[in-house]
Amino acid sequence: MAGVDFSQLPGVPLTIEGSWVLHQMLRLRRPLDPGVAGGALELLARLEGENSAFYSLLGHKGDLMLVHFRPTPDALNSVEWELSRLALWESVDVVSSYVSVVELGLYESTVKEYAAFASQGVEPNTPEWQEAVKDVMARQAQAMAPRLHPRIPDAPYVCFYPMDRRRGESKNWYTVPMPERQRMMHEHGLVGRRYAGDVKQIITGSIGFDDWEWGVDLFAGDPLVFKRLIYEMRFDEVSAVYAQFGSFYLGIRKRAAQLVELLSGPSRG
After folding, report:
1. 121 in helix, strand or coil?
2. The pTM of the whole model exceeds 0.90
3. Which of 157, 161, 195, 249 is catalytic?
């Protein structure tokens, strides 16, 4: 890569995308009649089998969080409509939601491949360049297929939060040269790898879809690992200098039958 002028190359890292994701945060206004709640069990159980999960939230931001992973945005939208037609939907308020798509960022591959293209004299954004990029993306998508369409982990706790990269007056992630961004992301990833046995992380992209740029889901058997992981990551350069975070949601996994039982119980007010 020595001698490659990255300022003359595209600054956007390559990404590959997979499942579409919707988070729905709900507030229960009143307990449901047992008949109404029971009538929802069939749909909730089917959605669970189709890669949805339900969580009881801690704190004031909502009572429930429903998480849906689907292969297309149309399938995701169908879930919204199916839920909205349930009688139980008249007893809840959707206090927040988040739309995104599973995203694998290819910083290291981008730097390597762009440098190779440049050394071969391939001009950016020409048909030859686009064909070479398409080939890289196809290879990466095949190699990472299991990570593009994951099942929601069967873990008792989830932490979800949206985030941005800073675009302020003094620090702007999007003006940092590609190799520097790649270096920082590599160091950032090393922290996450140390927790790989304790937490499952799924990153989703939301640029153009929602108010933040990425969503992060962490799944674990012990919620304290969320605090330890995120705290340690705050000390690496990419987080300390360039990260901005939205609201955090901490949830406890509930199966469909357990969710119906919660909905039929006393309201949290």
Report:
1. coil
2. yes
3. 161
Query: How far apart are alpha carbons 129 and 122 in whole angstroms?
Result: 6
Task: Assess if residue 5 is contained within a domain.
Answer: no
Return the structure tokens found at 259. Answer: 């969710």
Distance CA 33, CA 262 (A): 12
Please choose, from the candidates 162, 151, 155, the residue with its C-alpha nearest in 3D space to the C-alpha of residue 251.
155
CB atoms within 10 A of CB 196: 9
Domain-located, residue 4: no
CATH value at residue 91: 3.30.70.1030
Respond yes or no: is residue 161 known to be catalytic: yes
* Gap between the Cα atoms of 222 and 169, Å rounded: 39
- Domain enclosing residue 53, as ranges: 11-269
The answer to the question of residue 1 being in a domain is no
Number of domains in the chain: 1
pLDDT tens track for 175-222: 999 899 999 999 999 998 999 999 999 999 999 999 999 999 999 999
Phi, psi of 131 (to 5 degrees): -70, -40
Q: Is the pLDDT of residue 269 over 60?
A: no
Measured distance CA(64)–CA(158) in Å, rounded: 12
Distances (CA, A) of 99 to 16, 62, 175, 224: 17, 17, 26, 26
Residue bearing the bigger pLDDT, 260 or 80: 80
